[in-house]
Amino acid sequence: xxxxxxxxxxxxxxxxxxxxxxxxxxxxxxxxxxxxxxxxxxxxxxxxxxxxxxxxxxxxxxxxxxxxxxxxxxxxxxxxxxxxxxxxxxxxxxxxxxxxxxxxxxxxxxxxxxxxxxxxxxxxxxxxxxxxxxxx
Length: 136
Description:
With 136 residues, the chain is of the alpha+beta class. It has a domain at 39-121: Translation Initiation Factor IF3 (2-Layer Sandwich), CATH 3.30.110.70. Helices cover 26% and strands 26% of the residues. The protein has 2 helices and 4 strands, in the order H-E-H-E-E-E. It has helices at 5-25, 73-86; strands at residues 51-62, 91-97, 101-103, 106-119. A hairpin with a 2-residue loop joins strand 3 and strand 4. The radius of gyration is 23 Å and the shape is elongated. The chain starts with a helix and ends in a 17-residue tail after the last strand. 19% of the residues are buried. The model is unreliable at 8-23 (pLDDT under 50).
């Protein structure tokens, strides 16, 4: 029994790349989003809804070469969000980052910090209604 190796390779490649690519391309929905960067990371505190603090998140964004461009705010905020998302956070507040500096392992590294928070669902303000059988 002979197999066409090209056909086998095409089938395996389509199986390997079809499912993960579809899930990565699907847009994620967040409770709130910083429109400038596309993820829920903010340089300020959120005061319009209650939240609990999950912890501090830190990220370091490195340049590939000495000639690479500095990391953008969007890239830095995405890195912070990846770490906060692993904690189960709904947003990152008080995000900040400094200037790029040379380290032992990169041509330039930008350190960033923020606070991962989880929003508290507000209790319902509607009055409780007694069942009809209890009213008799």
